[in-house]
Amino acid sequence: MATTLTVYNTPQVAPVTGFWSRARKAGLAFAVLGVLAAGVLAFQARAGAPARFAVGVTTTGFAISVPGRVGAIVLGIICALTGGVLLTGRYDRWLRSLSALGLGTLVLSVLCSQVAGHTMALGDLARTTVLGALPLVFGALGGVLCERTGVINVAIEGQLLTGAFAASLFGTLAASTWVGLFAAAAGGLFIALLLAVLAIRYLVDQVVLGVVLNVFALGLTGFLFTQLMQRNTDKYNFPPTFAAWRIPLLGDIPIVGPALFRSNVFGYLAIVLVIVVHVGLFHTRWGLRTRAVGEHPTAADTVGIKVGWTRYRNVLLGGIVAGIGGAALTVGDVGGFANNMTSGKGFIALAAVIFGRWSPLGATLAALLFGFSQALAAFLGIVGSRIPTEFLGMLPYVVTIIAVAGLVGRVRAPAADGQPYVKG
Fold it and tell me: How high is the pLDDT of residue 202?
């Protein structure tokens, strides 16, 4: 008689304990931030100066004009009122919707106060957001592939860094962007192979191993950069970059078009991979077996699923995907490699995996949120915002901490995540 293994994805609801539930904590945060936005930041805007939001990629053309100070005050008050509603504790079931409203009005309030007297091109902001989020998307997808099968991938940072280095070096030597792309995939695969062998075969603690691999990648690429690339940049660190491909009609859609349909190969590849991984994970036999191994490897082994092979395969696939994300930083963007150019993006990608609840679509949306915070910080720095530049620089990391510690709440990772499996 055949045995059928079924994996259920049951949403986990965090229990409410004590007066300070997660909704009330979020409400307090939105109330305080809304008051600060309406009462402090709003008055940084010059009275009567409009905040203009252009729809296109330039500051010319159709634009929406809002009184900067008035708009900041009104939106800040709405954010504070949203926090007040959550503080009552009567609308916990609307936590996500009200949190989205509070966060949206808070961001718009800050924009109105800081953009007053200037024009923000929304199309350019969206394009910059996607460009900054691309390495995070690839890294997060690599993390999802690993962790859904029960292997914690803290080494995303090292995979991104090695991929970026390999893409720049081999892309320069071959004078080919495609060679750089495949070299980046091989670089990510190299770190993933070390992770897979040491974690699955030799049962090394996966968190400690991930940290060690990150340090190893940083040291290796830093040494080779100093000894090789820095001494002869033209020969070893001057790769070509992928040109942008515009899709007719779709590329003309306001705001979304420039971000998604005037991208280079990495933008389109990210869209394809997100769809493929999501469909594969939740609608194919491979996905069922992957989730079974990540949830209950003993039961999966009982019905004939090769746990070790499944984990090896997914970890290596995740490394390839994350390595391609590293290439997006070099042959997909600036061109040359710089020492430690990932600057913690791998850890933000890992946070996106958690924030996205180990789902490809959720992790992608989380990566876009972090990319938006990075793009916003860059824009505010350009227009001379009165917000200290040090705070603007740490904004993406602050958003990461708030998102994971505050908005996510208690989430459920795959049950066997991080647990080595030894066949009895």
Answer: 94
